[in-house]
Amino acid sequence: MDNTIATTHAEAGHEEHEHIVLPQHRHHFETEEQQREAGSFGMWLFLLTEIMFFGGLFFAYLLYRNWYYPAFAVASNQLNVPEGAVNTAILITSGFFMALGVWAAEVRKKNVLVLMLVLTTLFGVAFLGVKADEYHEKYEKHHIPGPNFSTAMFTNPAAYGIQEQPLAPDMAQHTEIFFFLYFAMTGMHAVHMIIGIGILFWLTWRAHRGEFSAGYVAPIENFGLYWHFVDIVWLFLFPLLYLINRHLPK
Amino acid sequence: MGISPVLWQFLVKWLHNSALFPAEASTIAPYTDALYFFLIAMTVVGMFLVVVLVFVFSLKYRREKSPVATQVEGSTLLEATWTIIPLAIFLVTFVWGALLYFRIYDPPANAMNIYVVGKQWMWKAEHPGGQHEINALHVPAGRPVQLTMISQDVFHSFSIPDFRVKREVIPGRYTTVWFQATTPGSYHIFCTQYCGTQHSMMIGEVTVLTPEDYDKWTKQSTSGMSLAQNGERLFASMGCNACHSGTAAARGPSLAGVYGSRLTLANGGQVLVNDAYLRDAILNPSQHVTAGFAPIMPTYQGQISEDGLIDLVEFIKNMQSNYRVQQTQMTGETDQAAPTTPGEGTTETVKP
Amino acid sequence: MSAPISNTIVNLPDQSTATIPKRNYINNEHGLLSWLLTGDHKRIAMLYLISITFFFFIGGAFAGLIRLELLTPQPDLVSSDTYNKFFTMHGIIMIFLFLVPSVPATLGNFFIPIMIGAKDLAFPKINLLSWYLYMIGGTLTLTALVLGGVDTGWTFTTPLSTHYLNTHVITAATAIFIAGFSSIFTGLNFIVTIHRMRAPGMTWFRMPLFCWSNYAASVLMVLGTPVLAIALVLVALERLVGIGVFDPTKGGDPLLFQHLFWFYSHPAVYIMILPGMGVISEVISTFSRKRVFGYTAVAFSSVAIALFGFFVWAHHMFIMGVSNYSALVFSLLTMLVAVPSAIKIFNWAFTLQKGSITFETPMLYAFGFMGLFTIGGLTGVFLGSLGMDIHLTETYFIVAHFHFVMVGGMLMAFLAGIHFWWPKMTGRMYPESLSKLAAVITFIGFNLTFLPQFILGYLGMPRRYHAYPPEFQVLNVLSTAGATVLGVGYMLPLLYLGWSLKYGAIAGNNPWQATGLEWQIQSPPLTENFVTIPIVDYEAYDYEWLEKKQREEVTTVG
């Protein structure tokens, strides 16, 4: 598929309105509007599939949190709420910059668009950096599921200076499931962010070349949808993993 | 059922002898077969209807006879008919099937219990009297038998086609099925859930004996110790009697007569103490703390096999008093502290 | 035509002067890369056709090996592990690499844009990506096979697949994961195309029913497949890391996997059958020269099947220890989902009434579909009925049931569609007598193979069994004999369709005198499908409009 304007429009007299033909117009669409609407619809549908994809993990989380409430409560206490909150702020800010970028593309301000895309990328990378630090902390505490996982902090919290009731060994075992779901859900989220950042690099380069400041805004808009979706997933993950029920009732 | 019993017997026997139909060897089998014949009739009628319609229309409206088609828009009446009638038939099937399901999975109160443990790739049947069978099951005719089953590894499924019963046998919790055999004889047992290499070798035979023959068999095949006696041995060797001694100051609740009772847990909930509860409480004690007691019981996950668990469950089921518990305790060390990790502090940690 | 009315509606151009149109999508560009990097939905459809045929015969070879082993009650042909790999690979290949993409990716890709008057699908590049994902998934599956195979069963039941097998489970799971995305993107493409790219005047209710069926299947693909993806990811992680999400000794629940797996795999069967039903609507209408009886009912039935199909998954788990109450709910819903399929069968049957019927090969396959799908669907009601399911589940009754709906139903519909649209896709007619023979052979072979399996199922023979008690042998031998006949029936189309590419009669635009936009353009079509986008002012299956058009049409020269 090349980008040249193809002359397959209807010939004699069936055009009802003047339609602008952009260089990026795909010949199988009749109008620019149709192409844009199809692209947007396609992205919304794709996000729907992503909801179903994450949904399986959310379901598993809800199930096990219900079954092993004490283990999940005590384990979630080990998550770093300040870092998580900072990450939430970072991600919301990057979403704000993305929205500004979409606006910039629509009003054809190329430099603002490029700046916004760069800022979005920067904040996205910052998010991943904080996440990496959190993961590293888990590694040091032996909370990464697998052969090195240790429930010592949960069976004997006093020895680690943690103000929490100790868990019985069998219940403590289930904290491994909490951490598995933590890594699976935030990891899956991080994978989506990494892919998004990759696309951001590509879009920034194309924006710099002026591809999006002459009326063709669909890729920016649609990527904005994707980025906001990734943001929203985090807004569900953060409270569910970090904030709710962090202590056992006394 | 609307069909004379004589005709029914004749039909079933004829089908069975042509190797096209399994024997009806349990009380539930005729019920299953009745539903089956209804469904076959429904299918035959449905097929017949569709085939006749297609045939007749094809013949009558073939191009040579009907060169021009008449465009028919549709008929709400017909649409309604072939929506409502199939729906009605399917709903009848639903109700009938549901009733049959509850018949098959709700055991009568007086059913005798046999434990079945499935593992790759064999069935182990354990009778309460201590008879152990591998890939075989001896049962008396005319008495309801309940099977309490669990897997030691992967999903299996215990099936006796001639009884029309089948139930998945899963790791982690008990599943049950019951039947009442009618006719002495030998019938197939199959594992019907794919479980690995020798799935098709995980088969056996259920032998239905007359009550007298069954009595004879139980006397001949016991290993000496009943399941409950084995359980009593384990109860002592694993240190359970240290806390569950039944004395007033005991650290754990008395287990005499607890089976079948309603228990109030520490978190306020009420629970019926059945086989599944007992097994779970041994493996995940922190979620099953009795009200008024501290959550100090260690888990025995990994310390005890499913057979051992069955022995313990049988023992607790039949425990009416703590006399023997205290007796066995006196012959061991009575001042030992309750172990906080399994195995610590007991004299032996022999897995049965 | 002269006085005696012929028994066929085939209307070919004069063969002495007819040629394939000079410019068409096949000869528009040349070279391998022009095919491998194409965005043309028709070329992508042909790429899919070649690849799924390839995988079909590999899956079929495994079926042959299975039936060969089951000739005798003893496990004497291959070892048990090998046999377990046979049925696993047969299932994985046939379901994920053949049945799921069969009609949507070939006929759907080719004809949905044309049927709605568009020049291509909404996202041609994503369409090509779908094919590449399919090929990668297929190649990975073959890799797993060559490396030693997988023996989990296509259902990947845990904890067997996570803890008790050391075959190439992760490779196979990854392959299916990737192929799943192929399916998701195809469905996404179809939904956006049908919503946004219909020609002027092509309202929802003027679309051919083929589009409705594929639309419903696409909704299922888009919503259901991601859940399979996550279930497979969890299995892979469980194998790699061993965290215990499905391991009861660590507090996990193997039943969780069952719920996640069947949440997709039940809608999957509707993903497989709905496009086939769409084909049947087109074929029955064309060969009775009549609008499908109750168009609206059939259209809404497709949507109803898709909707209800999401709420019945636990009927695969009735005996696994789900609660009695959930068993009741799922059984009831299963009965409800059976109704729209029954409606369709009757609607098709009554389309025949007052029609003008001919019996070309596609129609024969369609009749075969109606009979066999009725049996298959009704035996599904057996299985949805709780008490009956206890005896029948996990036996050969299930095997017979799903082969009736999938092979007797879906595969027959696929062959009906291939024969029906072959002239349009290639410009050539297939040989009619030989194809009729193949259809009859297939029908006979199919019944001989699978009817005995219902009996075996009631007798209690379990599925996935390498060896069986000797009293089941006669029925198994019948089944294997049928499989041989069936194999012949499937080989024949491969041969004569290939032959027809060079030697078949030139088909012309509309050999079946069918309605539908695809029949108003040349065969094979232009790359851009339409020179001018049509304006649609007539209903679907409007044979009166067609007749008027044919009367007023000037016969073109050359």
Question: Can you put this structure into words, describing what you see?
Answer:
The complex is a heterotrimer of chains A (250), B (352) and C (558). By secondary structure, chain A is mainly α. Chain A is 68% helix and 0% strand. Chain A contains 8 helices and no strands. In chain A, helix 2 packs across helix 7, helix 3 runs antiparallel to helix 8 and helix 4 runs antiparallel to helix 7. The longest helix of chain A is centred in the first third of the chain and has 36 residues. Chain B is an alpha+beta fold and 352 residues long. Chain B has 9 helices and 12 strands. In chain B, the strands form 3 sheets. Chain B has a 5-stranded mixed beta sheet with strand order 3-2-1-5-8, with helices on one face. In chain B, strands 4-10-9-6-7 form a 5-stranded mixed beta sheet. In chain B, strands 11-12 form a two-stranded antiparallel ribbon. Chain C has a single domain, classed as Cytochrome C Oxidase, Chain A (Up-down Bundle). Chain C starts with 31 loop residues before the first helix and ends in a 6-residue tail after the last helix. The longest helix of chain C has 35 residues. Chain C is mainly alpha-helical and 558 residues long. The model of chain C has no long low-confidence stretch (mean pLDDT 93). Chains in contact: A-B, A-C, B-C. Chains B and C meet through helix 2, helix 3, strand 7 and strand 9 of B and helix 3, helix 9, helix 10, helix 11 and helix 12 of C.
Please sum up the structure shown.
Chain A has one domain (43-243): Cytochrome c oxidase, subunit III, four-helix bundle (Four Helix Bundle (Hemerythrin (Met), subunit A), Up-down Bundle).
